[in-house]
Amino acid sequence: MIKKIIISIIVLTTLAYVGSAWFFSSKILHLGLTECSVEHFVFCGDPSTQDIPFEDVSFKTIDGFTIPAWFMPVDNAKQVILLVHGRTASRHEGMRYAKSLIDAGYSVLAIDLRHPRQNPNILSTMGYHEQKDVIVALDYLTSVKGFDSIGVMGFSMGAATSMIVMAKDPRIKVGVFSGGYANSMDVLAEQAAMIYGLPRYPLMPLVELLFQWRGDLNTDETHPENYIADISPRPIYLMHGTADTTVGFHHGERLFAAAKQPKQFWQAQGGAHTRLWQFDKTKAETSVVAFFKQYL
Q: CA angle, corner 284, sides to 286 and 269, nearest 5?
C-alpha cells in the first residue's frame, strides 16, 4: 500500500511538473492579439496621423512569412533608421521617435515582426526566428531602396533581436536599444517569479527544453549578452529605465558591461519599460537623434 502511494505521488508530481512546463512554454510561444494602447505607444494610427508621408510595404522572410511595414521616405536622405518593436507590440511602438528622426533628415522603416496577427501559426521565439524579419528588412533597405548607411532602434525583444543581428550583420552601422534583455531565459524566469511566484528551479530548465523543441530554436542564440561585444567598433546607445518591471534594469547594466566602446548608457531614473519617450520626451528624442547624427 505504501509503495503504491509513493508511486502515485511520484507519477502525479511528474505529471504536474511536465504539465506546468508545457503550459509555460506555451505562454512564451503563443502570443495573444492585443490592440495598440495609446498609453503605451502614444500613436496608434498609421503615420499619416502625424502628417508623415509613407508607403505600405511588405517583404517575405526566408522561411515564408510576410512582414508588413511602413516606409517613411525623406527626399535625398542617404541614411535610414529601422524601427523594431518588442514582443507583444507592433510597429506602432517606434512611431514615437519617427517624427524627430524624419525631421533630422532620416528616412524611417517601421516593421511588424512575425506575430499571430499576420498568421495564426506564427510562434514567438524571443528573437530567434525574429532575426529573419530584421534581416529581410535590411535586404529591402539595401537592395530595393539602395541605402548603405543604416541605423537601428529596437525596443525590448526588438532591441535584443536587433543587437544579435547587428553583431552578425555589418550593414547596421549604429544601434539604439531601449529596454532590451541580456538573456532571454533570465528575463522569463524573472517574470515567472514575479507573476506566478514560481522559483526558477526545477521548472525553468524543462520549460527551456520544451521551448527549444516546440519552437525549433536554440536559446543560446537569444542571449544578446553573448553577442554585444562583437558589435564594436560600431557604436551602440543603451536606454533603460530603473523602474522597469518587465525587463529589470540589471539587464541594461549587464549589456553595457558586456559591450565594448563606443557605447553610451542612459540610466533613466524612474523610467518604465520602453516608455522613456513618455518619461522624458525631450531627452529621449534629442539624445537618440544626436547619437545617430554623431555616428551614422
A: 130
DSSP 142: I
Decide: 101 and 290 in contact? Cβ < 8 Å: no
Average pLDDT, the chain: 94
Please report, for the chain, the start and end positions of each structural domain, with discontinuous segments joined by +: 1-30+184-218, 43-183+223-295
Residue owning grid cell 509503495: 3
SS3 category, 175? strand
Q: What is the 3-state secondary structure (H, E, C) of 1-68?
A: CHHHHHHHHHHHHHHHHHHHHHHHHHHHHCCCCCCCCHHHHCCCCCHHHHCCCCEEEEEECCCCCEEE
Question: Quick one: 261 exposed, middle or buried, by C-beta within 10 A (0-12, 13-18, 19+)?
Answer: exposed
Could you tell me if 256 and 238 are in contact, meaning their C-beta atoms sit under 8 angstroms apart?
A: yes
The CATH class of the 43-183+223-295 domain is alpha beta
CA distance 223 to 201: 19
Question: pLDDT tens digits, residue range 77-103?
Answer: 999 999 999 999 999 999 999 999 999
C-beta separation of 228 from 255 below 8 A = yes
Region of 18 please: left (phi>0), alpha (psi -120 to 50) or beta.
Answer: alpha
